[in-house]
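Per your request, structure below.
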């Protein structure tokens, strides 16, 4: 499984985390978030995919950010429709569509999105669109019946290492493309702890 570190914002911290070579780095373009990107993103090393995270944004704003920040993947964290995903997706841009889970989920909801989505991301349902800091019940994914690979997200931290190792060996992880981490590795909103994250990567 690959690793995505989401909610990056500060230049020096971006460089420190990029040195750990995660597969993806996520940048939030949602004004109500404490992780909202407000300055130029520094050049990140080749091999790290740059993801822009949006919540019910105007299509024009997404397209502008793609060009301005040289984004490779767009993560849609709101109530965006399949048609919206289709409008954003092209040969150069991949789409991650987020769905929030608590204790149960109807995976049939995903069917209309499948033709226009490269990945799904399953996060924990909470007061915020992401970064709530706690896990949902991964057993819900036993009912996942799509061929589309997914990102596992939602409050994942160091304490979940053994749980993740068990998960990786299970049948429900067959379509899991990557693990997405955020709030559990923060010293403050958007500022990730490189030491803690390095330890997580080594243990995983």
């Amino acid at each position: 499984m690959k690793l995505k570190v989401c909610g990056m914002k500060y230049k020096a911290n971006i460089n420190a985390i990029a040195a750990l070579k995660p597969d993806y780095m996520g940048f939030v373009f949602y004004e109500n978030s404490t992780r909202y990107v407000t300055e130029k993103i520094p050049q990140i090393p080749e091999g790290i995919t740059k993801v822009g995270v949006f919540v019910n944004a105007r299509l024009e704003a997404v397209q502008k950010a793609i060009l301005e920040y040289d984004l490779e993947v767009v993560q849609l964290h709101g109530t965006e429709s399949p048609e919206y995903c289709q409008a954003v997706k092209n040969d150069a841009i991949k789409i991650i569509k987020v769905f929030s889970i608590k204790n149960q989920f109807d995976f049939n909801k995903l069917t209309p999105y499948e033709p226009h989505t490269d990945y799904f991301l399953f996060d924990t349902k909470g007061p915020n669109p992401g970064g709530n800091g706690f896990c949902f019940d991964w057993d819900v994914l036993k009912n996942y019946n799509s061929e589309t690979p997914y990102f596992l997200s939602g409050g994942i931290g160091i304490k979940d290492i053994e749980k993740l190792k068990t998960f990786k060996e299970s049948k429900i992880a067959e379509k899991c493309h990557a693990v997405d981490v955020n709030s559990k590795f923060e010293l403050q909103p958007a500022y990730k702890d490189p030491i803690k994250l390095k330890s997580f990567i080594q243990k995983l």
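Residues 59-69 form the longest helix (11 residues).

Regards,
D.
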